[in-house]
Amino acid sequence: MAWEKHAGASTYAGLREVLREARVKHPHGLTVNLFIGPEGGFSDEEVELAECEGAALFSLGPTTLRAETAAVAACTVVLYELGAS
Q1: In sequence order, what are the residues at sequence separation of 6 or more whose Cβ sits closer than 8 angstroms to the Cβ of residue 37?
Q2: CA gyration radius for the chain?
Q3: Does position 10 have pLDDT exceeding 80, yes or no?
Q4: What is the mean pLDDT of residues 37-65?
Q5: Measured over all CA atoms, what is the biggest interatomic distance in the chain, rounded to whole angstroms?
Q6: Which SS3 state, helix, strand or coil, does residue 2 take?
Q7: Residue 21's closest CA among 64, 84, 69, 81?
Q8: Mean pLDDT of all residues in the chain?
Q9: What CA dihedral angle connects 21, 22, 25 and 27, to 10 degrees?
Q10: How far is residue 50's CA from residue 84's CA, in Å, rounded to a whole number?
Q11: Which residues are CB-contacts of 60 (< 8 A; sequence separation ≥ 6)?
């Protein structure tokens, strides 16, 4: 879950670490669901609920991106890290 309040590293480093941990937990297959918030971001309650359901948080860096741009950026990193061509 991309969350602007998450004190994390850059897009690449933060999401890369989330994916690395997920691959260790699920070595035989991995399903990735990205949650990109609406403009204005997720509420604290939405983030808490997602975390309770097992969502991992990551930051898209210090620049606030439009929702549609954030989705493309996050998908690109996921595809790169998982080796899709």
Answers
A1: 1, 2, 3, 4, 46, 67, 70
A2: 12
A3: no
A4: 86
A5: 36
A6: strand
A7: 81
A8: 82
A9: -110
A10: 26
A11: 2, 4, 11, 14, 70, 73, 74
Sort 60 into a burial class: Cβ within 10 Å, 0-12 / 13-18 / 19+: buried
Greater confidence, 40 or 72? 72
Beta bridge partners, 36, equal 2
3-state secondary structure string, 16-63? HHHHHHHHHHCCCCCCCCCCECCCCCCCHHHHHHHHHCCCCCECCCCC
What end-to-end distance do the CA atoms of the chain give, in Å?
A: 23
Q: What is the pTM of this model?
A: 0.71
Two tokens at 78?
A: 């996921």
Q: Which amino acid is at 52?
A: C
Beta bridge partners of 58: 2
Cα dist from 31 to 16, 57, 64, 65, 82, whole Å: 15, 16, 26, 25, 11
